[in-house]
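Task: sequence design from structure.
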């Protein structure tokens, strides 16, 4: 048997191997982790993050030609002698097509459309007042529009403002604009982004029924890029609530109650590729643009038609089951049923939002 010191020597790792590990393998692993940190974080999210507490889903009853009194009773409510006034309040960026569909769809039920627009994005980039320069497009609602402008802070060259701070400032400004719009205690207020559209029958139900909850979230069917790509029913931030002295404009969780199947949320539903680029660099999650080629028009076009993620991200899920289920492109849908009626009535104008219309204009 070989002496002990010879056996130990034979087990030593060769110097070249140690050098390879220290100078090549370790730096390569570190660089790989840094480059793909977001993917790694989202891949293991079920291990490090906890889902929010679940909502209490309220059943939503509706069918055409059913009397409103019967619908109110089905929900455990009663019919009012007259409808509540409804104020639709949104902070606007550049979603002109979606805004037109939203306002046309809800126009018969809304008392005032309250819209706040800033001259900067949430990231502090100067931007045109898109709504202000397109007033004629919304002339059909001019008697109902309360429009306010917000002077945002412009970020220093090469830097970005904290998007969540600027977003919070605009929401505070919206609270002030609402109070100058003529809203009164007991009126209904819709708090949502422009692309979170309550269905008309949802608004009508809450407008006409008594004993409804003081505040209720709206479960919206979520679509990406157009109504050809339905994702799920995960959209919950939109709310309708009864206005009172303590009401503040918010886009966060306000109650555990959510009304099922209450409308549509169409994310990144733009007509032109330049509008995609604008939003990708302007909204609160602009940090997801990790490389300049993310903003390449041909890349964006391919991803839209495939139903794939613009930011090359994994799904934001809290269980491995849902994570695996939602990996890859969003399945195409050929259905254009139960969509906003104004969209279907003007299908030629909004072909890009319907099945088969994935190609976008560059201008």
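Answer:
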């Amino acid at each position: 048997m070989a002496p002990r010191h010879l056996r130990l020597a034979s087990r030593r790792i060769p110097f070249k191997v140690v050098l390879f590990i220290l100078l090549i393998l370790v730096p390569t692993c570190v660089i790989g982790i840094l480059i793909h940190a977001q993917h790694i974080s989202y891949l293991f999210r079920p291990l490090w993050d906890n889902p929010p507490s679940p909502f209490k889903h309220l059943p939503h009853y509706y069918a055409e030609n059913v009397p409103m009194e019967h619908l109110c009773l089905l929900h455990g409510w009663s019919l009012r002698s007259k409808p509540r006034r409804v104020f639709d309040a949104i902070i606007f960026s550049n979603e002109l097509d979606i805004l037109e569909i939203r306002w046309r769809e809800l126009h018969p039920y809304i008392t005032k459309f309250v819209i706040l627009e800033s001259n900067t994005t949430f990231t502090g980039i100067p931007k045109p007042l898109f709504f202000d320069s397109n007033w004629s497009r919304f002339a059909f609602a001019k008697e109902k529009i309360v429009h306010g402008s917000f002077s945002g802070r412009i970020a220093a060259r090469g830097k970005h403002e904290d998007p969540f701070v600027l977003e919070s400032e605009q929401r505070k400004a919206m609270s002030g604009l609402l109070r100058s719009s003529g809203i009164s205690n007991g009126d209904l207020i819709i708090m949502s982004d422009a692309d979170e559209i309550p269905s008309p029958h949802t608004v009508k139900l809450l407008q006409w029924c008594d004993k409804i909850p003081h505040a209720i979230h709206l479960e919206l069917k979520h679509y990406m890029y157009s109504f050809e790509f339905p994702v799920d029913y995960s959209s919950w931030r939109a709310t309708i609530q009864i206005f009172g002295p303590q009401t503040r404009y918010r886009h966060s969780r306000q109650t555990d109650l959510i009304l099922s199947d209450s409308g549509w949320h169409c994310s990144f539903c733009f007509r032109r590729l330049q509008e995609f680029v604008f939003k990708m660099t302007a909204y609160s999650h602009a940090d997801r643009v990790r490389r300049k080629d993310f903003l390449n028009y041909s890349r964006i076009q391919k991803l839209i038609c495939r139903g794939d993620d613009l930011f090359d991200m994994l799904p934001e899920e809290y269980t491995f089951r849902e994570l695996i289920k939602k990996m890859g492109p969003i399945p195409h849908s050929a259905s254009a049923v139960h969509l906003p009626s104004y969209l279907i009535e003007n299908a030629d104008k909004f072909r890009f939002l319907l099945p088969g219309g994935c190609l976008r204009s560059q201008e």
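The CA atoms of residues 111 and 154 lie 34 Å apart.
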